[in-house]
Request: fold
Amino acid sequence: MSEPARVAILGAGHAGGTAAALLRQYGFAGPIALVGEEPIAPYQRPPLSKAWLKGEADAESLALKPVEFYAEHDIDFRPSTLALSLNRGARTVALSDGSELPYDFLILATGARPIALPIPGADLAGVMFLRTAADAETLKATVGPGKRLAVVGGGYIGLEVAASGRALGAEVVVLEREARLLARVACDTLSDFFKAYHEQHGVRFELSATAVAFEGEDDHVTGVRLADGRLVASDAVVVGVGAHPNDEIARDCGLDTARGVVVDLDARTSDPAIFAIGDVAHRPMPIYDRMFRMESVPNALEGAKQAASAIAGRPRPPGEVPWQWSDQYDLKLQIAGYAFDVDEILVRGDPKSGHFAVFHLQGDRVQAVEAINAAAEFMMGKQLIGARRPVSKARLADPSISMKEVAA
Amino acid sequence: MAKITYIEHDGTEHVVEVKTGLTVMEGAVKNNIPGIDADCGGACACATCHVYVDEAWRDKTGTSSAMEESMLDFAENVEPNSRLSCQIKVSDALDGLVVRMPESQH
Reply:
């Protein structure tokens, strides 16, 4: 009788943690090792820039599963451990504790690391990222009434930190390199709306502002030097300018990579025994006839479902429409889809009312929707995107017609 | 603290103690009770923590916000006693609460 297959999961973030739990839920009974570089069990990152900073959540409340879950379900969880290299021929992983971990199936869930600005002063105390619970702990201890917080990067991280910083009474300035906020992820209408909303809450913005150095005294940051020569005095800095996939371990052993580990619709890499999921995966998106890498919780969950299904011998799960959300002040931004191949933008509702949605259309089909406090537009929009169903633009633009009627 | 009974679609009952301040969703996830997916972790952004609140408890669980109502509108198999469990906060007043999970959350 043959031994049951062994699974090794490298990375104990949202994707890796979920894959381990799903394998057991799907009836996979073989050994599972879950290797993570952080010292704590898998947890949710989204609240780190929101509830955690505001003191409304802690490590226990963010855990994906209670810590006893892993032992109870025969999952060998190894925190504070790095995977150093893969030996695909021997099917083993060299770990930082000196051991070799054998596998029959391997799931790469190594995620992404914050991009560090390669500018002078980056090592000064007080210059922070926000990715891990440890980062959030440091940031929380720093932000408070009267503290001057500079945020480099006007993307989701930057804006959520700005909103939380204001809630804690800090003075906040956001320094964005591009001419508008959320330049890579949202349209002009949305950028303008968020800028105005943040400004109403006391956040200052410097757009088209490139940080060229961090200035400091006694090894602690005292300000950010901009390309135009001005100095933005600050007590603390959060850098949120994007993340780089941790795909080196895959590249080093000859797997296909493309700024991320290339996978198919089952999350399988160019090696049939190896899968890649979450922030590190470069995956196909049939709706857009493209391949790309996404950084979101829904993406991590979908990859985990795909890999666990393939390993446990379950049918491939139906494809999902990619989506994400961001909470800033009392605004809930929900985005479904990606604005590829768009020839028209249609706004439904009045931005001044605080709830509206921006639809991105290709002909009469919805490619993406960005909804602000507009759950019906988000949910129905997501269905329209997935079904590739044409829609009447006149009806879509008319808020007096419900989204259910529009989509009927 | 509240004793909450979660009943799966196939009738399997799980009775657990849930700390005050957690949500009904968190009570299920932390106790590994199947049937509540909670993909967004409680941000009222995904409608996969849908439950049916037992009639006797509907008033005690309070009323839903506009956001919850909108999200719930698009969940599967919604009934008048449907709620998103991530929006129901646990307190002593909910001791004895009974909720049922739908057949599927997606």
